[in-house]
Input
Amino acid sequence: MSALGQELVLPHDAAGLQAMLDAIPYARYLGISSQLDGADIVLRMPFREDLVGNARLRALHGGALGALLEFAAICQLMLVAEVKAAILPVLRDLAMKA
Output
């Protein structure tokens, strides 16, 4: 069930942040977990072979690292946001022309 167009209560604690990450399919696929360490938020993404972007260097794919950074920024904003709830926008019409 999509939450688009519905009011969402923004998380302001460790359990709420983890619940939010668990609700995001890509964050769940990457295995991202969160915890609070005092006033700091710590996100972890376990290493997996299928996330390697360069097999020779055994380096993680840039998209996976970028997603981790984006989720970290989102979680930090959720913690410090003065807003308690938000409504996600709904895309009503999309047309692509070649």
About this structure: The chain has a mean pLDDT of 84. Residues 62-80 form the longest helix (19 residues). The first strand starts at residue 7 and ends at 9. Helices lie at 14-23, 25-30, 62-80.
